[in-house]
Amino acid sequence: MKTEISDYQKDLVKEKYSQIAEQNEDTDKVGCCGTTACNTIDCNIMADDYTTLKGYVADADLGLGCGLPTEFAKIEEGDTVVDLGSGAGNDSFVARSVVGDSGKIFGIDFTEKMIERAKANAEKLNYKNVEFRLGDIENIPLSGGIADVVVSNCVLNLVPDKNQAFTEIFRILKKGGHFSVSDIVLEGDLPEGLQKSAEMYVGCVSGAIQKDNYLSIIESAGFHNIRVQKEKRISLPEETIKQYLTADQATEFNKTGIYSITVYAEKPENCCAPGCCN
């Protein structure tokens, strides 16, 4: 049953994000869910502004993030960076502006249309060291110990098996490597109406887990020096709450915190955990 639910969630995300990838970035720019995915949610309530960052490419910015992980990721010139859930390439291109010609960027996304759009953007920019690959974050199509840095922006909340996702991040990082990911987490429980909504899942809300549990998963994967670099509270629009919740549920929902957090953690230089000695 769990596998069937996971497959359904993945198919749902792939369908909706394929629709987003095909939208015109000038006339129909979207946010965390996209106008065709969950139009009851204000698309700007989660996304942060990339426009002032070096390496920003407007054609790659679909407004799908909930933070600026590249700003906190301690990326250096010459680094190999892996961007998980790379979409149209927004974070990948910002990271490329830091690593320069001597570095390497791998963008991973499991939506074919997003990969096509990202590759087209990279080709227009004539970037030879930015590579986009089709793949699942639960089974990343990269060899172990390849990355100096991993970044991800509002994607891991959509992955059904978060334990496996962070295990994979640990595997692909070099010893001493690190990640910085922005994601949606909870403090308190979501009402049933939001938990069961497929629309809210694609909108990065019902797929989120408790903040403490999220950080515990990271630690269990073998990471250390774990810290929250940035945190902001997300408020859902009143019309969204009314659509999914009764008056009593809405009152209870006010006790729940939905947060965008940017989390940093390191793979130890020396360890005996699986994935350390690739």
Structure notes:
With 278 residues, the chain is an alpha/beta fold. It is built from 10 helices and 8 strands. Strands 1, 2, 3, 4, 5, 6, 7 and 8 form an 8-stranded mixed beta sheet that branches. Helix 5 (162-172) links the parallel strand 4 and strand 5. Helix 1 (2-21) packs parallel to helix 4 and helix 5 packs across helix 8. The longest helix has 20 residues, at 2-21.
Largest beta-sheet details: 8 strands, mixed
What average pLDDT do the residues reach? 83
Structural class: alpha/beta
What Rg, in angstroms, do the CA atoms define? 18 Å
Kindly list the characteristics that best describe this protein.
278 residues, Rossmann fold, 10 helices, 33% helix, 22% strand, globular
